[in-house]
Amino acid sequence: MRNPSTFGITWYAQDTLGEIVFFTPPAVGAQLAKDEHYTEVESVKAVSDVVAPLSGEVIEVNESLTNEPQKINEDPYGDGWLVRVRLTDPTEAQELMDAATYKATLP
Amino acid sequence: MSDQLTAPPSRWFIEAADDELTIFERSREGRRAFIAPRLDVPERPLDELIPAELRRREGARLPEVSEPEIVRHYTRLSKRNFDLDTGFYPLGSCTMKHNPKLHERVAGLPGNADLHPLQAAGDAQGALELMWRLQHSLGEIAGLPHVSLQPSAGSHGELTGVLITRAYHEANGDRRTKVLTPDTAHGTNPATVTMAGYELVKIGTDEYGNVDIDDLRRHVDTDVACLMLTNPSTLGLFERHIEQIAKAVHDVGATLYYDGANLNAIMGICRPGDMGFDIVHFNLHKSFTQPHGGGGPGAGPIAVAAHMEPFLPRPQVVRREDGSFDLDHDRPHSIGRMRGFQGNYGVFVRSYAYIRSLGAAGLREASEVAVLNANYLLARLRREGVLEYLPAAYDRICMHEFVLSGAVMKRELGIRTLDLAKRLLDHGVHPPTVYFPLIVDEALMVEPTETETRETLDHFAAVVAEILREAATDPEIARTAPHTAPVRRLDEAGAARHPVVRQPL
Known about the structure:
The complex is a heterodimer. By secondary structure, chain A is of the alpha+beta class. Helix content of chain A is 18%, strand content 31%. Chain B is of the alpha/beta class. Chain B is built from 17 helices and twelve strands. Chain B has helices spanning 3-6, 46-49, 67-79, 101-107, 110-113, 125-142, 154-171, 188-195, 213-219, 242-251, 272-275, 345-383, 407-413, 417-426, 454-473, 475-479, 492-497; strands spanning 146-148, 178-182, 199-203, 224-229, 255-259, 279-281, 302-304, 316-319, 325-328, 402-405, 433-434, 443-446. In chain B, the strands form three sheets. In chain B, strands 1-7-6-5-4-2-3 form a seven-stranded mixed β-sheet, with helices on both faces. Chain B has a three-stranded antiparallel β-sheet with strand order 10-12-11. The chains are: A alpha+beta, B alpha/beta. At the A-B interface, strand 2 of A face helix 17 of B.
């Protein structure tokens, strides 16, 4: 697991949420706990919690999303990243699914 | 796609919207719709009437237009609106039932319409009596005797109810920090909880669409001030375990709050007070026929059990021993005023007219037919094959509304619930509620109400089936719908990201 790591939401998540109109970035320095929500994204449908996949400290937030939240829809795995995090326990990543396993869970 | 396919099946609008100027853009200096008659009293200097420092230096920038321009402008705009008087409006959870025109007549009577809110109680006995009688009627419908008409919206009623809960616990020397809501709750519930200074805890839904009792038991303790619930639930299902829920909540000394959003399903059949609820709010603009949908005015009165009565807002409308009606300000434990004056009086007149026109048996019949219509429509959609693409979220007998999931439709036909909703506009039907409750994927929430005919319900079912057939051939038609409305697909994301909130004059 790369450390620091980049967090975001999946293609499926952005597709299900619909067009995202607002992203509330956490503060740089915020401590994230695995499986706890650390920020919110607002789409035309709803405001949704974003859950941290791993624990760590926020070292950078994607400031460009303030004016262009649509990047989360357009490129969730690239320009639409949310935060960079210095992981406190990279071994937590062993509990995560790989992409193929995740895809198999989708409807 | 061919023109034939996109041709409007029905036209509920008159003309394209692009060219409609605002009333300010139409303004031309000196144009008038009305000229005041010549003064027939001696003219007095303005300074004598209003001191110069209290007057504005420049004239107000009001549009200067002629009467025909005003009439045409607003008539054109009104024709572009889709409203209950135009067509079927099955907007789930909103109870868009017909508003009898008789109510407009009584609300417009001079004694009602010309009333001033500062009139002394002695000069407004009729209005106070109507409010007092409405309080009694609502108390009887709720099964909770003490009513305040002050709150002016459902959410306002919620806030009042939770503040009363807070006052009740504090009077018992009891400091509690949490309020529970189900994960299907209306968004106003969590907002109310936060605004009243409590921490929100969400309770899960079980596989039948009920409150998950085990999850409730895990979270209910002496830190819990209140559980906010609707019954029937936001999924349109009757909460079967309501007595167990009420017991679990009361066992820890918490209160049980009834969100009246879905009262239209149970009026005159069962009473929230009998189910164990301590506080109820009514949406007079839903169940009791105040026209709504344009943002108001509404009314969200609350009814409470005897142990909550001292905390109701003040003043209360009361009947004195001599039979006269009055406003009682002498309520030392009251949470105080929830608004200026006594509420939206016109709403009270319409709701009282509705209750008195129907009577107890009529209200019960209204609810029975609301439930029957919803179940008929669900059965009809099933017969049309619609449920193969939009299965019911929970396969049960529904109450006054039901929730379908468009997940299969999205996967098999490539159109989303939003596309179906927009295409319905081309057929002259207002879309149902979409993407709510959040726990149902691609949710479509349909509430037909008791005031629709069987033909209208059949038409809706046929139209949805037709849109699905059309999507199987050419999904692009639904994806780009509406085609015949005054405006096409709106850029909601753009409007939220870059709102234009003022127009330069």
